[in-house]
What does this fold into?
Amino acid sequence: MQETKKDTGFEIVTREDFSDVTYLLEIRHPLMAKAARPGQFVIVMLHEHGERIPLTIADFDRNKGTITLVIQAVGKTTKEMQQNCRQGTHLYAIVGPMGIPSHIGKAKKVVCVGGGLGVAPIFPQARAYKESGAYVIGVVGFRSRELMFWEDRFRACCDELIVCTDDGSAGIRGLVTAGIKQAIAKHSDIDEVVAIGPPVMMKGCAEATRSARIKTMVSLNPVMVDGTGMCGGCRVKVGGKMMFACVDGPDFDGHQVDFDDLMFRLRRFVPTEKAALERWQDSCRMKIPPIERLELPDPFEEVKGG
It folds into this structure.
């Protein structure tokens, strides 16, 4: 595990913007690219005095020696990264890969679901299941057609792809749970569902599969500081037991996760995060172009841009 690289840091080799808040960073890190597995995450620092934030690995290329992160600018650090991270610039530090890799197993038919923040990180899991020989059904959700990305990547590794949009401008109209129900109605032999996205979305996915008794795994990415289980910030209740997303996860049985407790805990951090964002925006108000004020998302709702 490597955290900092003196002198230059870790080079950003590609920057791509999917919407006004969603952007991609491809970072050169050969050792991490070699070690990364589907489901893992990294902790990133933009600069020496920056916040440590966890980000799920959206892709990795062992030949190029790069990892890919898809980020939504919803808080102080992610907004600062959106402003400053360009091709040729460097991140100060990256810790990882962290977390227990997703268990791909020998499932024959799998539904991989991504919505909001989870569309990108569900991709390496879908690809891994396909490489293992499974029949893969992808379900991805966006606000509208204009916000869609990576459709070609998903179609390349999915036997079926169900696109859901809030406004019905692409695929079926509705949330990703509508896509899950469509897949279950068509396939009676689904072995597993894997879902990544905002907590409320993952809760909905777990409820959509509960009556059918389909194994449903979710990826939890709550607030964390050290990523070693010492700070306790990422603790979650799973099956009545206290666990830590950074070392026991991030993948957990969705039917066992106490999502209400998780979302209540996330809401406790919103005032602090909002204050940090406002302080940073105030310090940047003299810059050109002006910094648009952003409202932090409610953990109970989908994130803008996803």
Summary: Confidence is low (pLDDT under 50) at residues 290-300, 302-306.
